[in-house]
Design a protein that fits this description.
Layout: H1 3-14, H2 17-30, E1 37-41, H3 47-56, E2 61-66, H4 69-78, E3 85-89, E4 103-108, H5 117-127, E5 128-139, H6 145-155, H7 171-180, E6 184-194, H8 200-208, H9 221-236, H10 240-244, E7 245-254
Parallel strand pairs: 1-2, 1-4, 2-3, 4-5
Antiparallel strand pairs: 5-7, 6-7
Helix pairs in contact: 1-4, 2-3, 6-9, 8-9
Length: 255
């Protein structure tokens, strides 16, 4: 995934209340130790990093790493006044600047769908202390509902779009991924997030320009216009409250 994509979305992420609640719940379930040293991988606008900094207290330290300078600029503003959180721009799959066994915990809120699961868990396991915790959140396969509608309409035009939630799309898959990576004492916790309703233009932009769906760029103007009309028609017919709810999984394991 390119940094420019996330740079372009940084402003909207910073104002997304559902991301705040999603991140705070992950940190709550992680039960981070006071005084702990925590890595927030794919920190984005820093919601999980800030929650973690408060959880570990002034004796602890949190480092948030993200590929996007735009996201980190927002994170820096959010973390103002918290001396125990810092941010670094970098690839969370390439953590060579951190020695083996550096962190008590590695967390990742809402970021796994943009990463290679196997590479991420291997990189994070290396920088964890023995017994250290890894924790991440993932949305269930087939959600959000609007993404499912978009893929269905794209299929009518010959596009086979992959569900980015598939790899970690339920408790079993989350637990299996952790076990394959060598983590033990694996546990999963179900949850739910409520997504905000966006205007038509924003909804279209989110899905038509998603880095998960590069195939959309192969459509000609006529097919692209047809996809937009059909998809947004489906979105307008949704039951707003029901379609806004998305089940998620929080998953944890120990090195």
């Amino acid at each position: 995934m390119t940094a420019s994509y996330f740079d372009g979305r940084a402003g909207r992420y910073a104002g997304a209340d559902w991301h705040v609640r999603y991140a705070e719940r992950l940190v709550e379930l992680a039960a981070l130790p006071p005084g702990g040293h925590v890595l927030d991988a794919a920190t984005g606008t820093g919601f999980a990093a800030v929650a973690a900094a408060r959880a570990v207290g002034p004796a602890g330290r949190v480092v948030g790493v993200d590929v996007s300078a735009g996201m980190l600029a927002q994170a820096g503003r959010l973390g103002t006044g918290l001396p125990n959180v810092t941010y670094e721009q970098g690839d969370v799959l390439r953590l060579d600047r951190f020695g083996e066994g550096t962190f008590d915990a590695v967390i990742c809120s809402a970021g796994m769908l943009y990463l290679s699961v196997e590479e991420a868990l291997a990189a994070w396991r290396r920088v964890l202390k023995p017994g250290g915790l890894v924790g991440f959140s993932a949305m269930r396969a087939g959600f959000p509902v609007m993404a499912r509608l978009f893929r269905a309409r794209a299929a009518e035009l010959g596009l086979d779009l992959r569900d980015p939630m598939e790899a970690l799309g339920d408790e079993r898959r989350c637990a299996a991924a952790l076990a394959r990576a060598g983590f033990t004492s694996v546990r999963t916790v179900p949850g739910e997030v409520v997504l905000p309703r966006s205007d038509d233009e924003q909804v279209w932009r989110i899905y038509s320009r998603s880095p998960h769906y590069p195939e959309v760029g192969t459509l000609g103007p006529e097919d692209l216009s047809a996809l937009r009309a059909r998809f947004l028609g489906d979105v307008r017919r949704l039951d707003g409250e029901a379609s806004a709810r998305a089940p998620v999984v929080y998953a944890f394991g120990h090195r």
